Structures are given as structure tokens and as C-alpha cells.
Amino acid sequence: MTVGQHESSGPGAGKHVGKWRYFHDKFVVEERYLDPADRRGLYRASVILVVAGVALFVATLISVLQADGLSAADGPVRDWLLGLRSNTLTAIMIFLAVVFGPIALPIILLVVVVAWGFAAKHAWRPILLASAMLTGVIISQIILQIVRRSRPPVDQMLFGIDHTFSFPSGHVLGACDFLLVGAFLIFSRRKNTRAAVWGFVGAGFGIFLAALSRLYLGYHWLSDALASVSLSLIILGGVIAVDTWRTARVPGERITGELSKAETPRD
To answer: For the chain, what is the HEC assignment?
Structure first.
């Protein structure tokens, strides 16, 4: 008899295996069966998102460094938004900036992750959401220090003066990661295609409002927001790939964590 077999048949083996199984099922793994074509489709979507995100980010970065191309629209868009300013619209934009800001959004994320983690059978998806957003914060801070782009003039800022760097927008990137990754993690487990479409439409509208608020309030250029969207597409593609690799199984594949005969507790 091997050591593993001896331990699995001891008096406390059932309790020990039960605790490990609970921990494994709750925090380590969440697995589901998919058709092989659906799993390939998810991998294909992840690659497309990453490629599109990299292409858009590189194009935006080059345009910013060379002050042409996509960044040529920065000035006209800023001037157009300056002409739209009003007390009511400013109050709405400040509210949106606070919601997607560096204080409120982490609190919202914490509440969502904790509530989702306790309520759901598995904690994999809320942990993945939090990890994706943390990745976005790290990437944006690195790029900010490398590019070191100046913000619009401080006399155009409506919610306090900010002398930090502008490219990319942390507010927009945080909103993109929270809404896009969250939408994927929720609707990827559902068969209702129409609900998924509306979910991503809602996420896109939220991202538009987050970006609009930062441009309207005078803290970012349009190309800053485009860079954030492109980075979020890369992160979303990575999340889809990781989630598919870790959770998607096709018929005939063994669910990891299924107890072998030697591990099964005896009565």
C-alpha cells in the first residue's frame, strides 16, 4: 500500500479530502463543457482581440509621438467639447468621473468581487476580474512613465488641477476593464446570445460615457482614450484565453479535480 493510499483510507481522510475538494472547487477551478467548435471560437476571439488591440495601440502611440494621424483629431474634439460646456452637463460629467475614478471604482470592484465570490459556487470569475483590473493599472502606470505625455492646459480642467501624465487614461482603462471583462465573465456562461449582445452594448455605452467625461472635463485627449480602449482589448483577449484554457472542457476530457479511486474516501 502506498503512502497516498494509506492516508486516503485513514480515519481523517474523508474530512481532509472534503476540505481540499471544497477549496479546489471554490477557489482553484470552475469548469464547464463546451462544444469543440465553441472552444475554438473563444480562442479565435481572444487572438483577434489581442491583435486588434495591439494594432490600435501601436497606431495611436505612433500618432501621438509624431503628432499626426489619429492624434490630429485631439484638438478639434477638445474644441468641440469646450463649446458644449454647461452647468448641468458639467455636473453629470463630474459624477461620471467620480464613479470611474481611482477611489470609487476600486470600492465598487471590491464590493462586486467579495459579493460575487461569496454568492457564487466558484470564485474563479471574480478573482479573474480583479486580476484583469490590477493588470490594467500596472500596464497604464508603466506606459505613463515611458511616454510622459502632457495633459491639456490646466485652465481647461473643471474638477481640480492634475499635473500627472496623460497617455493612456487610467479612468477609461479602468472602466473598459471592469465593463468589458465583467460582461464576458457573466455572459460567457449563458446561452442567451441576445442577452450577451445587449450586455456588451451596455458595456460599450458605459465606456463611451467614461471617456466622454474625461475629455469634456479637460483632463485627456481623444488619443489617450483610444489608447486605453486598445489596451483593454488586449487584456480582454488575454482573459478570454486564460478563462477558456482553465475552464472550458470538451466532451471526453476529464474535469480536473475529479477524485481518482485512490483519493475517494472510504466509508
So the answer is: CCHHHHHHCCCCHHHHHHHHHHHHHHHHCCCEECCHHHHHHHHHHHHHHHHHHHHHHHHHHHHHHHCCHHHHHHHHHHHHHHHHCCHHHHHHHHHHHHHCCCCHHHHHHHHHHHHHHHHCCCCHHHHHHHHHHHHHHHHHHHHHHHHCCCCCCHHHCCCCCCCCCCCCCHHHHHHHHHHHHHHHHHHCCCCCHHHHHHHHHHHHHHHHHHHHHHHHCCCCCHHHHHHHHHHHHHHHHHHHHHHHHHHEECCCCCCCCCCCCCCCCCC
CA 228 to CA 214: how far, in whole Å? 12
pLDDT at 227: 96
Q: What is the pLDDT of residue 9?
A: 47
pTM value is: 0.83
In angstroms, the CA 216 to CA 83 distance is 10
Question: Cα separation of 89 and 98, whole Å?
Answer: 14
What are 47's three cell numbers?
Answer: 487572438
| Residue 47 backbone dihedrals phi, psi, to 5 degrees | -65, -45
Q: What is the mean pLDDT of each run of 10 residues along the chain (267 residues)?
A: 42 53 60 83 95 96 88 90 92 93 91 86 87 94 93 88 90 94 90 88 95 93 95 96 86 60 40
Residue where the block lists cell 474625461:
214
User: Are 57 and 64 contacting, i.e. CB atoms less than 8 angstroms apart?
Assistant: no
**Chain centre distance of CA 27:** 19
